[in-house]
Design a protein that fits this description.
By secondary structure, the protein is an alpha/beta fold. The protein has 20 helices and 25 strands.
Length: about 675
């Protein structure tokens, strides 16, 4: 065969291979200018959160990181955000954002400063923090290892030595024994790949080593530690109810020149080392450490996560000559914008991250996503794009349960010190003042628009037709199937994503003392005398949100709140009333999507619907017609709003416990459902 024919064959094979690679592994880039980033849809129970890490915010930690900062002459973390002393006011910041979830880490060096010394005081403070978060209806998510650990543990070799895992497991069990029955969400290890790569390949994290042998040992031991931690906590009290998972940073690797086979090979090697081998290990239980040729089984690793936490920030363009130091800017596409960290903003990679972890068949939680942006001019767009990607992925069938923005506030960014600002709140590190950024306002607004409004429950009336069981007890406190009716109503509201409720107790407020409900923040308001529905709402007007769902304390109406809220907002309504057409009697007429007549007493022949007990109201409507004293909502608002009330048609059966017969039917319903 002549040389030129052979060369032509090789070139043809090369071109075919490149075409196959480019087709099989596209590098997606969207035309963001053509996308409506305001169009977002999230499940009502979606977990909206913010995230932090102990060493980055608490201040005055003495651990492997503080020692590393001093030894390497890096910028010292010092007092950081002084969060250890300011946690209560910092929790105010979370509450003001409207987020219902907060991910933070427990600093091992505070709990066990020396091998034989445990600090019950520090553990008690973390317990107080958890209790405070829960009282604010903010669900805590705890990370048990977020890059930092005690100096004594590092002096023993840290995670380089497999037997040292026992120390960490003991710490995890101690924390879980204190907090496990209150905290539902647990992350074992944060970004094991970053911990090993930065600490043992690039040398930018403690211990500052550059050793592939140690990298392999630490990688394997971290996966062993995760598996052992998961199994140990599951056996403890509260373990079966806890959601425990690994947090994996996903870096997307793309070939810099998509026609260059060497660039493709490098990107696939890095993808295997940084992403695939770790995810495959979770799925199969067999782990092949980065740069190793063989995999081996890790006991308990398969099935060791109830969810997968995805941390995503960017993609990296790979060549065989990529820099091994963070001081050199990474390559970017000409149209991409650099963040302050110098890597590009590439929101499309978040979707590719979801696709990468999908075959684990686990719920996905975005446990970190954010951007280094000192002047906050990029972060609003960064939030919009990544939330749009998340919303679209959910619509396409991905089981994504939550999104935690990194970070709550500017903080100590590891080897970068205080040069990189990721916060929704700006922190002045001299005065420790926190200021909400425009991006924080945007994130809060998105959450508000995608969260079920405040629930207001009229809970104080007596059920006079129920006889002796209701002689001196509000109808909402009468037990049905073992617990008060109000609990059933709140259970449903919580399942629909409601986070706070205002309970109007009438003049019987003392009957509601010590009533609690985990998952919904409760506010109670009492009247001095019976005021009727309208009067009760007017009397509590200072406690009402600008938009609220009105429920009755003796009705159980399990409808989809997201649908009625969406219908209400699309019609820009002051009042939306749920109307059923399948009731045994009718008390209203609706036409062209509006309620045009209502009569609670006398049914008219042209009535074609019945008020089903769930309404959505804009507070401004109350101010238009409200007044002091006793007055009826139905007799005042409905006539004056006739033809303007939006009708939401829903034939879901609702239950009224007003008579012994109805109470009996409701009891059977709960028993059978």
């Amino acid at each position: 065969m002549q040389w030129w024919i052979f060369a032509l064959i090789l070139i043809s094979i090369y071109c075919i291979l490149i075409v196959i690679l480019r087709w099989s592994f596209p590098e997606k880039h969207l035309n963001w200018e053509s996308i409506n980033l305001e169009k977002l849809e999230f499940p009502s129970e979606f977990m909206w959160g913010v995230a932090t890490a102990s060493h980055q915010i608490e201040g005055n930690n003495k651990n492997n990181w503080s020692e590393f900062e001093s030894n390497k002459k890096l910028e010292l973390s010092g007092i950081a955000c002084d969060h250890w002393n300011r946690w209560e006011s910092d929790f105010d910041l979370i509450e003001n954002l409207g987020t219902g979830h907060y991910r933070f880490s427990i600093e091992w060096s505070r709990i066990q400063p020396k091998e034989e010394e445990w600090s019950d005081e520090s553990l008690e403070q973390y317990s107080q923090m958890v209790e405070d978060l829960i009282s604010r209806n903010i669900e805590p998510m705890i990370t048990l290892h977020h890059f930092s650990h005690p100096i004594w543990f590092q002096e023993k070799g840290g995670f380089e030595v497999e037997s040292n895992i026992n120390y960490w497991i003991t710490f995890c069990e101690k924390v879980f024994s204190k907090l496990g029955q209150r905290v539902k969400w647990w992350c074992t290890i944060n970004e094991p790949t970053v911990f090993t790569a930065m600490g043992y390949v690039l040398g930018e994290f403690p211990p500052g080593a550059r050793s592939f042998k140690k990298t392999r040992a630490v990688s394997r031991n971290l996966m062993i530690a995760h598996a052992r931690c998961y199994r140990a906590l599951k056996k403890m009290k509260g373990g079966e109810q806890a959601n425990i998972g690994l947090v994996k940073n996903i870096n997307i690797f793309d070939p810099y020149r998509r026609w260059n086979l060497l660039h493709w090979i490098q990107s696939k090697i890095l993808d295997e080392m940084f992403n695939k081998c770790w995810l495959r290990g979770l799925k199969t239980g067999k782990f092949r450490t980065p740069s190793s040729l063989f995999s081996s089984k890790i006991p308990g690793l398969k099935g060791s996560s109830d969810f997968i936490g995805v941390n995503y920030y960017t993609h990296l363009l790979a060549t065989p000559f990529m820099p091994t130091t963070v001081e050199i800017d990474p390559l970017i596409r000409p149209w991409e914008e650099r963040t302050d960290f110098r890597y590009p903003m590439y929101a499309e990679g978040l979707r590719r991250s979801f696709e990468m972890v999908k075959n684990l068949n686990l719920p996905i939680i975005v446990t970190e996503n954010g951007v280094a942006d000192d002047d906050d001019d990029m972060r609003p767009e960064h939030i919009r794009r990544h939330l749009w990607i998340t919303s679209k992925a959910i619509k396409d069938g991905f089981d994504i349960r939550g999104f935690y923005h990194w970070s709550l506030m500017d903080n100590f960014e590891w080897a970068e010190g205080y040069t990189q600002r990721f916060g929704l709140y700006h922190v002045d590190f001299e005065s420790q003042d926190r200021t909400l950024k425009e991006s924080g306002k945007l994130y809060s607004k998105v959450i508000e628009e995608n969260t079920i409004p405040q629930v207001v429950i009229l809970a104080g009336g007596l059920a006079t037709r129920l006889g002796k069981i209701a002689e001196d007890k509000p109808k909402s406190l009468i037990e049905v199937n073992g617990k008060p009716m109000l609990n059933h109503i709140l259970d449903w509201a919580e399942s629909q994503g409601c986070r706070k409720a205002l309970v109007l107790t009438g003049h019987l407020g003392n009957k509601f003392e010590n009533f609690k409900h985990r998952g919904i923040s409760l506010t109670f308001h009492q009247e001095s005398e019976p005021l009727g529905t309208g009067g009760a709402l007017w009397n509590a007007k200072e406690l009402l949100d600008e938009e609220f769902i009105l429920l009755w304390g003796d009705d159980y109406h399990p409808i989809n709140y997201s649908s009625i809220v969406k219908h209400h907002r699309q019609n820009n309504s002051l009042l939306t009333m749920t109307v059923t057409e399948s009731h045994d009697s009718m008390n209203l007429r609706h036409s062209d999507g509006k309620v045009v007549a209502y009569n609670k007493i006398d049914q008219e022949s042209n009535f074609n619907g019945y008020e089903a007990g769930t309404s959505i109201i804009k507070k401004s409507l109350l101010y238009d017609y409200g007044k002091d004293g006793k007055w009826s909502w139905e007799e005042t608002i409905y006539p004056k709003q006739s033809g303007e009330i939006t009708a939401y048609i829903d034939n879901t059966k609702f239950w009224d416990m007003g008579t012994p017969e109805r109470l009996s039917k409701l009891e059977k319903f709960f028993q059978n459902s």
